[in-house]
């Protein structure tokens, strides 16, 4: 009897293992089926005229996609279009402020008329404001929320009907590690990026049933060359110095082209979240597992930062010092030249 019972138990165990193995294989096959080719797909990238958006546009073109970009500065947008057209492929550049729903509707309509329905939407447009909380106004918060929450919502709602009709689509929302860990002296930015993470996660849950996969991207600092076009308050020269140096030095920031490739691969697979760079991964884990320690560390960092509460607003290019012009920022300056971040009009 004992021998028979052992054989029966072994048979049941083997059956469970076989079933688990089959389930795993089927699950892996389902995941693999989610991978898509971007060839002949229509990709719309907001904020695609410079920085990370322009890098992503280059990479999508290399994949054989039709690429539409938008941006607020027409001169910057025209330079980006000329560069992308030289790479070959089909390119459309449309002036658009994504905080205006009327302009967004017109943008999507023009993309549809030129290339057809949008297959991949990348919500990348962004603004950066740096300075102590006391230097920030309600207008700073409104600008950040309009750009990082309402802008992605407007574009998403504009492309959703046709994605749902086709039963497929990809939406990529570029948030930030600042959307997982609130960074001192960047409260409007972090608050609005946290909001984008919440929107993106909710969209993922509700749209999966329609075949639409939403990916939330939280990168560390990337050397895109954007600091000269960010805005700074308080002791703006010191604020710009710490931000620009952090954005330039390896270890604190990462190569933007490598970051863009990881974002593109996350979109291809339909990942729920892409944490780009070791600081982003460590920050997300620390915030989850040790929230009190993380909060204490952020408070300590805040004490080291300038505490001037002046509300005057300057761009990075208006805040240069010998330190920010030194070899320490060379990598970021080279990135600015590559990624159309020079000669951007001041808003």
UniProtKB/TrEMBL annotation:
- Indicate the transmembrane segments per the record: 12-32
Name the InterPro entries for this protein: KR_dom, NAD(P)-bd_dom_sf, Sc_DH/Rdtase_CS, SDR_fam
**Matches recorded under PROSITE patterns:** ADH_SHORT
CDD domains the record matches: SDR_c
Q: Start and end of every Ketoreductase domain?
A: 41-225
What keywords appear on the UniProt entry?
Membrane, Oxidoreductase, Transmembrane, Transmembrane helix
> What does the record list as coiled-coil region(s)?
none
Q: Which family does it belong to?
A: Belongs to the short-chain dehydrogenases/reductases (SDR) family.
What protein does this entry describe?
A: SDR family oxidoreductase
Source organism per entry reads Hyalangium rubrum
């Amino acid at each position: 009897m004992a021998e028979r019972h052992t054989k029966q138990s072994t048979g049941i165990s083997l059956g469970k293992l076989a079933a688990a193995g089959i389930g795993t294989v089927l699950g892996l096959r389902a995941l693999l089926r989610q991978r898509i080719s971007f060839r002949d797909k229509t990709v719309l990238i907001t904020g695609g005229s410079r920085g990370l958006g322009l890098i992503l546009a280059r990479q999508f073109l290399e994949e054989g996609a039709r690429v539409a970009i938008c941006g607020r500065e027409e001169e910057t947008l025209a330079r980006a279009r000329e560069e992308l057209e030289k790479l070959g492929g089909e390119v459309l550049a449309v002036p658009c402020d994504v905080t205006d729903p009327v302009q967004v509707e017109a943008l999507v309509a023009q993309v549809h008329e030129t290339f057809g329905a949008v297959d991949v939407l990348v919500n990348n447009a962004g603004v950066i404001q740096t300075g102590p909380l006391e230097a920030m106004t309600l207008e700073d918060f409104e600008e950040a929320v309009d750009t990082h929450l309402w802008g992605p919502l407007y574009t998403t709602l504009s492309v959703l009907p046709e994605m749902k009709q086709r039963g497929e689509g990809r939406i990529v929302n570029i948030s930030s590690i600042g959307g997982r860990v609130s960074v001192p002296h960047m409260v409007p930015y972090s608050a609005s990026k946290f909001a984008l993470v919440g929107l993106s996660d909710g969209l993922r849950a509700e749209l999966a049933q329609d075949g639409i996969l939403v990916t939330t991207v939280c990168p560390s600092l990337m050397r895109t060359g954007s600091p000269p076009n960010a805005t700074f308050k308080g002791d703006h020269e010191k604020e710009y110095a710490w931000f620009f140096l952090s954005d330039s030095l390896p270890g604190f920031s990462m190569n933007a082209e490598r970051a863009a490739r990881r974002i593109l691969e996350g979109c291809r697979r339909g990942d729920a979240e892409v944490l780009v760079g070791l600081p982003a991964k460590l920050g997300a884990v620390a915030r989850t597992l040790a929230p009190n320690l993380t909060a204490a560390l952020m408070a300590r960092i805040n004490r080291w930062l300038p505490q001037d509460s002046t509300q005057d607003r300057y761009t990075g290019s208006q805040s240069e010092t010998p330190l920010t012009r030194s070899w320490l920022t060379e990598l970021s300056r080279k990135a600015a030249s590559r990624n159309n971040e020079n000669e951007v009009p001041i808003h």
